[in-house]
Amino acid sequence: MLITVSGPAGSGKSTLAGNLADALDYEHVSGGDIFRDLAEDRGMTPLELNKAAEEDDQIDRDLDRRLRDIAAEREDLVLESRLAGWMAGEHADMKLWLTAPLDARAGRIAEREEKSVEQARTETEERSESEAQRYAEYYDIDFADLSIYDLAINTARWDPEGTLNIALNAVDAYDAAVDEGKTPVEGIRYEF
């Protein structure tokens, strides 16, 4: 099974993806890690690389190509990135979307990156605007369109364990439906 975990910065993608991969004994691939590695290789911060990507579309296209290739080639995988659901396409068995209010996300980012909440909020807003513009330009993706996702979870309402339990219940329900010979219906989405 290929499960994607998508959402904006600070929504808890990495936490859920890692926990989900551990619980299912799956591999975990993070687009954020790939992007941060690309930034470090170029001597830039992720925000600086994001800004550079506004002028050099090859940065995004290389990352996205890697994500599509991984989705096409691997099974028993949790693939996590802002666009994992879009990039995995028909290869994904289940697409999860995580979200949280900006203040909650900025607080998480500030703690993780050891910066002020104000700085994290400003950078997160700038990064989100930059990415949304590029996604629309490159792929005609509306980042606010959640219709491709099977499940949306507001991680400000649930701690990491609660979020994991919701995701695992969805995976169990999917597996049970497939075992009964039922075909999961696209376009049905649940929000928690």
Unreliable residue stretches: none
CATH homologous superfamily title: P-loop containing nucleotide triphosphate hydrolases
Fraction of residues in β-strands? 5-15%
- Count of separate structural domains: 1
Mean pLDDT: 90
Report the order of strands and helices: EHEHHHEHEHHEHE
CATH topology: Rossmann fold
Q: Quickly give the CATH architecture.
A: 3-Layer(aba) Sandwich
Task: Give the spatial strand order of the biggest sheet.
Answer: 2-3-1-4-5-6
Note the overall shape. globular
| Tally of alpha and pi helices | 8
- Under the CATH scheme, which class? Alpha Beta
Termini, distance in Å?
22 Å
* Helical residue percent band: 55-70%
Structural class of the secondary structure composition? Answer: alpha/beta
Number of strands: 6
Radius of gyration: 16 Å
Major beta sheet summary: 6 strands, parallel
Structural commentary:
- InterPro entries: Cyt_kin_arch, Cytidylate_kinase_dom, P-loop_NTPase.
- Belongs to the cytidylate kinase family. Type 2 subfamily.
- It catalyses: dCMP + ATP = dCDP + ADP; CMP + ATP = CDP + ADP.
- One of its GO terms (cellular component) is cytoplasm.
- The chain is an alpha/beta fold and 192 residues long.
- The chain has one domain (2-191): 3-Layer(aba) Sandwich (Rossmann fold), CATH 3.40.50.
- The protein has helices spanning 13-24, 31-41, 46-55, 57-73, 84-88, 102-113, 117-139, 160-179; strands at residues 2-6, 27-30, 77-80, 94-99, 151-154, 190-191.
- Helix 1 (13-24) crosses helix 8, helix 3 (46-55) crosses helix 4 and helix 3 (46-55) runs parallel beside helix 7 (117-139).
